[in-house]
């Protein structure tokens, strides 16, 4: 009972109240919304174009739909039925990490998820490695 009496106020605060630091972070986000959204929108749009253009060049190896509400591509790799093995091979050969579509259920099998919410240099290097993997 002694331990429960000491834990209860902490437990209650954590579960029932947003921590002060989170409240300040939310306030800052609300006050800076337009600047943050406009800046990130421009960056994500450029990154989306960069990744999409690379994927279009690789149309012998994969098919995809342009994302409109996320910062991920989910291309289907032609002839691949085990996305986990594909991702491991991709990582071993060119040191590029992507998420196997199987992680998203049976409908994702044969796909990979590519995030373009990364710094420009990372995107450029990742797309270079993806091209190298398929074309060599």
How would you sum up this structure, described in words?
It contains five helices and five strands. With 136 residues, it is mainly α. Helix 3 packs parallel to helix 5. The longest helix has 25 residues, at 33-57.
Short account of what is shown:
Helices cover 59% and strands 9% of the residues. The protein is mainly alpha-helical and 136 residues long.
List keywords for this structure.
136 residues, mainly alpha, three-stranded antiparallel β-sheet, two-stranded antiparallel ribbon, 5 strands, 59% helix
- Averaging pLDDT over every residue, what do you get? 91
Largest sheet: 3 strands, antiparallel
Poorly predicted ranges (pLDDT <50, ≥5 residues)? Answer: none
- C-alpha termini separation: 67 Å
**DSSP, total strands:** 5
The secondary-structure element order is: HHHEEEHEEH
The percentage helix is 55-70%
Structural class of the helices, strands and pairings? mainly alpha
Strand content bin: 5-15%
Strand ordering within the main sheet = 2-5-4
Bulk shape: extended
Count of helices?
5
């Amino acid at each position: 009972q002694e331990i429960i009496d000491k834990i209860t106020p902490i437990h209650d605060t954590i579960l029932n109240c947003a921590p002060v630091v989170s409240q300040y972070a939310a306030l800052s986000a609300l006050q800076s919304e337009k600047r943050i959204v406009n800046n990130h929108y421009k960056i994500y749009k450029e990154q989306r174009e960069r990744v999409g253009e690379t994927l279009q060049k690789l149309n012998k190896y994969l098919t995809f739909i342009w994302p409109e509400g996320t910062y991920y591509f989910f291309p289907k790799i032609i002839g691949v039925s085990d996305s986990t093995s594909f991702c491991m091979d991709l990582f071993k050969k060119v040191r590029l990490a992507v998420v196997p579509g199987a992680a998203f259920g049976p409908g994702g099998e044969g796909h990979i998820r590519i995030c373009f919410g990364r710094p420009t240099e990372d995107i450029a290097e990742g797309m270079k490695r993806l091209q190298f993997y398929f074309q060599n």
